[in-house]
Amino acid sequence: SSKSELTRNMFGIGLTIDAGPGQIYANWSWAQEGKGSAVTTGCQNGTVLCGRVGGLAAGGDGGANEYQISYTYPLSKRTSMWVGYVKIANDSQASYNFGVNNYNIAIGGRPQGLAFGMWPNF
Question: What is the pTM of this model?
Answer without folding.
Answer: 0.79
